[in-house]
Amino acid sequence: MANIGLFFGSDEGNTESVAEKIQACLGPENIDIFDIADVTQLEFDQYDRIILGIPTWDFGQIQSDWEEFWPDLENLDFSGKTVAMFGLGDQFGYGDFFLDAMGELYQVVLKTAASVVGFWPVDGYEFDASKALLADQNCFVGLAIDEDQQEELTNTRINQWCQQVCAEFDLDIDITLLED
């Protein structure tokens, strides 16, 4: 079994693609990937280190598979686990709701998580509002990806975030950098 469990939801494939890139960067032997549409609460119990990936739809809506899993998510106990997250959104088309779903996910996880890591700086993004913003720390609650407006920055951001999360997960693994 791998050291990390990554759980994502994706309708059009962008979040799944980012999840696969994170797995490639951290090494397939170190991370198991699960589509949230195909899991139960039991899969979460297998991992002490968890990555959650969620896109924000339209005007701050939660992706459909995550929305269906939400009641189970609210009953999960993340104590004893270290959790990181990444979110996808469109900062220009939906700048008032950028990464809102990740912010809502963070609020649920924060209730029981031993540790949440992987916070990401807001530098380089243009948006009006976000539920994923920790204003007092000037950062997002997780990696911010905008495949609609800044696709050319995705691999660089994943590389940097994976190095950060690997250290915060206290894992001594070799990172495989994605090509820019």
Automatic annotation (TrEMBL):
<keyword id="KW-0285">Flavoprotein</keyword>
<comment type="function">
    <text>Low-potential electron donor to a number of redox enzymes.</text>
</comment>
<dbReference type="GO" id="GO:0009055">
    <property type="term" value="F:electron transfer activity"/>
</dbReference>
<comment type="similarity">
    <text>Belongs to the flavodoxin family.</text>
</comment>
<keyword id="KW-0249">Electron transport</keyword>
<keyword id="KW-0288">FMN</keyword>
<dbReference type="InterPro" id="IPR008254">
    <property type="entry name" value="Flavodoxin/NO_synth"/>
</dbReference>
<protein>
    <recommendedName>
        <fullName>Flavodoxin</fullName>
    </recommendedName>
</protein>
<keyword id="KW-0813">Transport</keyword>
<dbReference type="InterPro" id="IPR001226">
    <property type="entry name" value="Flavodoxin_CS"/>
</dbReference>
<dbReference type="InterPro" id="IPR029039">
    <property type="entry name" value="Flavoprotein-like_sf"/>
</dbReference>
<dbReference type="InterPro" id="IPR010086">
    <property type="entry name" value="Flavodoxin_lc"/>
</dbReference>
<feature type="domain" description="Flavodoxin-like">
    <location>
        <begin position="4"/>
        <end position="166"/>
    </location>
</feature>
<dbReference type="InterPro" id="IPR050619">
    <property type="entry name" value="Flavodoxin"/>
</dbReference>
<dbReference type="GO" id="GO:0010181">
    <property type="term" value="F:FMN binding"/>
</dbReference>
<dbReference type="Pfam" id="PF00258">
    <property type="entry name" value="Flavodoxin_1"/>
</dbReference>
